[in-house]
């Protein structure tokens, strides 16, 4: 039986790629979309080149009230809307697969406790590209041997959140194996604030935003006489769709919140 899917953000760069993916996959059935600007219209009225037509809802509550057969919500929107959509989906026992980044730690904890107490599966994946997940895993391995590490993430200049969800997740994974240390010179001073980047437990994160970029990250380790660079590039948003597919299938079997695609690969 097909998995019934709702996509939030169908006009966005990621959302439209997700609609194309669901169009192709016979194991999934698109039931509706959530789009804050086009409630009451249909998908093809808004984006004529899509081959499937479904109703559009402005708010998640109405969408799930009127479609009680929905299995999975795929959210690819903006942080505050994504957080609200996820909460509403869980309340309706719809399993969220969330690609939207920029949630706070507190928001993730809250969603986790709702998902776990309701026994409704939920996946929050800061990066759906398999290569990016491998880059994070390799960085976690390398940090056992190289505690000095900087993360450089580079994205298109329409990105709202900095640092990227991927960079935060990478630092979180690295700190699981890295011996805590303060990097750089003990007396170093920023003569321009921000020069040394953001800081997660002493791991520095630098965010680049430029037109022409899609999604890229380098994790650079340094030690006496050597450096090791682990690098991943998404040149096309199609790179994320294998992970979205996997997420939709896996969340159907889950009864709790999973943070990070690495936990289901
Ligand atoms: N997990 C992953 O692998 C990936 C995650 N992302 C994340 O996905 C999200 C979307 O990224 P893009 O598609 O590049 O952005 P985009 O700007 O192209 O699309 C954003 C979508 O959100 C909708 N939106 C904006 N404000 C809204 C609101 N207040 N309420 C409801 N909908 C609203 C827009 O209509 C649009 O459809 C971002 O958080 C981004 O960081 C992006 C790429 C990969
Ligand atoms: O906004 C993007 O484009 C991306 N966002 C995600 C993030 O914040 O890590 C994933 C990927 O890097 C693309």
TrEMBL record:
Domain annotation Dihydrodipicolinate reductase C-terminal: ranges: 131-265
Active site: 155 (proton donor/acceptor), 159 (proton donor)
Keywords associated with the record: Amino-acid biosynthesis, Cytoplasm, Diaminopimelate biosynthesis, Lysine biosynthesis, NAD, NADP, Oxidoreductase
Chief location: cytoplasm
Reaction catalyzed: (S)-2,3,4,5-tetrahydrodipicolinate + NAD(+) + H2O = (2S,4S)-4-hydroxy-2,3,4,5-tetrahydrodipicolinate + NADH + H(+); (S)-2,3,4,5-tetrahydrodipicolinate + NADP(+) + H2O = (2S,4S)-4-hydroxy-2,3,4,5-tetrahydrodipicolinate + NADPH + H(+)
GO CC term (a single one): cytosol
Biological or metabolic pathway of the protein: Amino-acid biosynthesis; L-lysine biosynthesis via DAP pathway; (S)-tetrahydrodipicolinate from L-aspartate: step 4/4
Residue intervals of the Dihydrodipicolinate reductase N-terminal domain: 3-128
Domain of life according to the entry: Bacteria
Binding positions for (S)-2,3,4,5-tetrahydrodipicolinate per the UniProt entry: 156, 165-166
EC number: 1.17.1.8
Signal peptide: none
One Pfam family of this chain: DapB_N
Residues given in the record as NAD(+) binding sites: 9-14, 99-101, 125-128
One of the record's GO molecular function terms: oxidoreductase activity, acting on CH or CH2 groups, NAD or NADP as acceptor
Function, in words: Catalyzes the conversion of 4-hydroxy-tetrahydrodipicolinate (HTPA) to tetrahydrodipicolinate.
The name this protein goes by in its record: 4-hydroxy-tetrahydrodipicolinate reductase
Organism annotation: Virgibacillus salarius
The gene coding this protein: dapB
């Amino acid at each position: 039986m097909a998995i019934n899917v709702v996509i939030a953000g169908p006009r966005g760069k990621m959302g439209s790629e997700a609609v194309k993916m669901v169009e192709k996959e016979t194991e999934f059935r698109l039931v509706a979309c959530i789009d804050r600007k086009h409630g009451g219209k249909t998908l093809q009225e808004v984006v004529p080149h899509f081959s499937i037509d479904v109703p559009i809802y402005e708010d998640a509550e109405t969408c799930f009230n009127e479609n009680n057969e929905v299995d999975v919500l795929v959210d690819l929107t903006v942080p505050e809307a994504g957080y609200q959509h996820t909460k509403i989906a869980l309340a309706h026992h719809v399993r969220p697969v969330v690609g939207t980044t920029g949630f706070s730690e507190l928001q993730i904890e809250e969603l986790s406790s709702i998902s776990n107490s309701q026994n409704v599966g939920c996946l929050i994946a800061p990066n759906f590209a398999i290569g990016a997940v491998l880059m994070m895993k390799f960085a976690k391995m390398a940090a056992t041997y190289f505690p000095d590490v900087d993360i450089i993430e580079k994205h298109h200049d329409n990105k709202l959140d900095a640092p990227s969800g991927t960079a935060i997740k990478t630092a979180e994974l690295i700190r699981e194996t890295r011996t805590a240390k303060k990097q750089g010179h003990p007396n170093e001073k920023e003569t321009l604030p921000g020069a040394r980047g953001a800081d997660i437990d002493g791991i520095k994160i630098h965010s680049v935003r430029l037109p022409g970029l899609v999604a890229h990250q380098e994790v650079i380790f340094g030690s006496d006489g050597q450096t090791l660079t682990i690098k991943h590039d998404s040149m096309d948003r199609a790179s994320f769709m294998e992970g979205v597919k996997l997420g939709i299938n896996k969340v159907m079997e889950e009864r709790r919140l999973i943070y990070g695609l690495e936990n289901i690969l």
